[in-house]
């Protein structure tokens, strides 16, 4: 667990600097927690898989680039500075034509691919 995220350090968490610490895609990194919720940053590019999260909503905040989230009945496109909350139980599939940098907010322990298992399934609780 990173000390940067501990309140005792009184140190700002700098998103740009956090992104400099990794280059791999589809591997969300935890940068902070609030109660049971985690703030994760990730680089995404290409197609994800269809999945849903039965027990929780999932928040996407785009920091750089453009992300499209497909739903069975439509899609939403998010540019830098835009966010969207995917309601629990709603199937979705993120897609980014070029690399996008984003923040995810969701409860601790949520699998990125929901109940689906795929090569996109990322390990949880990787702090940077
Ligand atoms: Ni999801």
What does this structure look like?
- This protein is mainly β and 128 residues long.
- The chain has a domain at 36-107: Jelly Rolls, CATH 2.60.120.
- The chain has one helix spanning 15-19; strands at residues 29-34, 37-47, 58-64, 66-71, 74-79, 83-86, 92-107.
- Strands 1, 2, 3, 4, 5, 6 and 7 form a 7-stranded antiparallel β-sheet that branches.
- Strand 1 (29-34) and strand 2 (37-47) form a beta hairpin.
- The mean pLDDT is 92.
- Nickel (II) ion is lined by residues 51, 53, 58, 92.
The computed structural class is mainly beta
Strand content: 35-45%
Low-confidence stretches: none
Q: Any idea of the CATH topology of the domain at 36-107?
A: Jelly Rolls
What's the average pLDDT?
92
- Distinct small-molecule ligands in the complex: nickel (II) ion
Computed over alpha carbons, the radius of gyration is 14 Å
CATH superfamily of the domain at 36-107: Jelly Rolls
Number of strands: 7
CA-to-CA gap between the ends?
8 Å
In short:
With 128 residues, this protein is mainly β. The protein has one helix at 15-19; strands at 29-34, 37-47, 58-64, 66-71, 74-79, 83-86, 92-107. The longest helix has 5 residues, at 15-19.
Helix and strand layout, with pairings?
Blueprint: H1 15-19, E1 29-34, E2 37-47, E3 58-64, E4 66-71, E5 74-79, E6 83-86, E7 92-107
Antiparallel strand pairs: 1-2, 2-7, 3-6, 3-7, 4-5, 4-7
This protein binds nickel (II) ion (NI).
């Amino acid at each position: 667990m990173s000390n940067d995220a501990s309140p005792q350090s009184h140190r700002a968490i700098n998103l740009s600097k956090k992104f400099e610490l990794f280059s791999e895609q589809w591997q969300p990194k935890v940068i902070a927690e609030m109660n049971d919720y985690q703030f994760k940053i990730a680089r995404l590019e290409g197609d994800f898989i269809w999945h849903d999260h039965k027990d929780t909503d999932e928040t996407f905040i785009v920091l750089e680039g453009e992300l499209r989230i497909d739903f069975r009945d439509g899609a939403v496109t998010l540019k830098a500075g835009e966010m969207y909350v995917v309601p629990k139980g709603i199937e979705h599939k993120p897609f980014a034509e070029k690399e996008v940098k984003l923040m995810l907010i969701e409860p601790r322990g949520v699998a990125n691919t929901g109940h689906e298992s795929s090569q996109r399934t990322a390990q949880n609780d990787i702090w940077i």
